[in-house]
Amino acid sequence: MSEEVSTAFQAGLTHFGIAESAAAFLRYRDELLAWNSRFNLTAIKDPEEVLLKHFLDSLTLLQVYDQPGAIHVLDIGTGPGFPGLPLKIARPGWHVTLIEATGKKTTFLRHIVDTLQLTNVEVLNVRAEELAHKNPYRAHFDLVTARAVAALPTLLECSAPFCRPGGTIILPKKGELADEINQGKHTAFRVGSHFQQDIEVTIPGLDDGRRLLVWEQQKLCPPQYPRSWAAMTKQPL
Ligand code: SAM
Question: In the chain, N or C terminus with fewer CB closer than 10 Å?
Fold first, then answer.
């Protein structure tokens, strides 16, 4: 596939100080599209859209959270790696755990981690609500994220148990969010989180209503959470 990187994507990489990572992203994009016909990994099939709507969109988390050093990051329901793997490429010192319920997606993730020779990436084929009750994962992470997995109340009930007190949860969302944020605030109160910020994504090429919802984990999440997926989705807190 093309060796070319579009101006918008290259400008995005430069914006985040990682212009030299273009080759890794192109390889990731080419492997994703090559595996897509067999594994149905992404609905976005246009090569340029993969760069902008998957990779650059994942990197926008760095707009609100960026830390030097070996912080621990969790991506819940990562699919083919979003946003966790682009963040790992951008910040190689981070320890990144990717959890994904579908086995064929974790097969792809392991392939891409090997291909790009990434270290300190853990790929787990598990359901978030089960792993969240286990050590060493509970209350372990500095940053927890999940993109396009569920509504805010479910995402918060799933994310908060993994986050250490003082840690950060960032949930990318799009569209009209006022009601969802209000529901999320109720859930946050129950799981020890607190709403911090609703940040508009302003990167050129992604100016279509994308937002980053930022929550601080203020205390340990009570041990009864998360509940089963059915309870979380049908009876939100
Ligand atoms: N985060 C990726 C992205 O933004 O492109 C994938 C989004 S995809 C719409 C949702 C993913 O979450 C699917 O791959 C699904 O298998 C995974 N998923 C859903 N519920 C999950 C759970 N309870 N635990 C782990 N993964 C889950």
Answer: N
